Amino acid sequence: MDNQTHVVIVYPHPDDESFGGAGIIKKFRQEGVPVTYLCGTLGEMGRNMGTPTFANRETLADIRKEELKDACEYLDIDYQYLGYRDKTIEFEKQEEVANHIKEVLETLQPSLVVTHYPEHGVHPDHNALGAATIEAVRLMDKADRPTVWASAITNDFEKVLGEPDIVYSIEDDFEYKLNAILKHKSQAEGMFEKMQDTSGEHQVFVDGLKNRLGKERFFTWKFED
Prior knowledge:
Strands 3-2-1-4-5-7-6 form a seven-stranded mixed beta sheet, with helices on both faces. It has eight helices and seven strands. The mean pLDDT is 91. The radius of gyration is 17 Å and the shape is globular. 44% of the residues lie in helices and 15% in strands. Helix 4 links the parallel strand 4 and strand 5 (147-151). The protein has one domain: 3-Layer(aba) Sandwich (Rossmann fold), CATH 3.40.50.10320. With 225 residues, the protein is an alpha/beta fold. It has helices at 16-30, 60-75, 94-108, 124-139, 157-161, 174-182, 185-195, 201-213; strands at residues 7-11, 35-39, 78-81, 112-116, 147-151, 166-169, 215-220. Helix 1 crosses helix 6 (174-182) and helix 3 packs across helix 4 (124-139).
């Protein structure tokens, strides 16, 4: 994780940066490394409309834009939108998406790119944008290619892919990650309510979150050419 000059994270939705990378983001920012989040969509087709409901299909995109702004301010990172429609990236031509991302990366000149591992991102948008991002880096001149970390989040990824190359634990600083996640109120309000539960279920829920989200794990992508 050392000696980075600029880290670019490429995920498809507002809140992916917090769920998937708040820990490494904090580490890089503490080291003075700039981090930019390239957010693929506005998350306008997200299932959650708040708990209780405070959004609809017409208003959710604007709400999620504000939530991402708040989260990125909290994380102290820059962000840009790539402009794709939620739940449709898999239907875009991968070559076109890859060339688009390549142009952005060549402008930003990152030393490290973080994205989802294709076929191990669970959500079709995760898989499609991860594949396009890796292809974007492959298309770059070899001398200019950043390192790529690919995040696998399927339940059985270790059986299929083996042990990840990078495992970053934030279990001792889990509140920081939770705070970033909770900036995305429309998607995390149910989580927040469960955390306010004063019964014995509260600790069970928090322990479950730590188990699922307390380690951020990545594979270093190996290019064949």
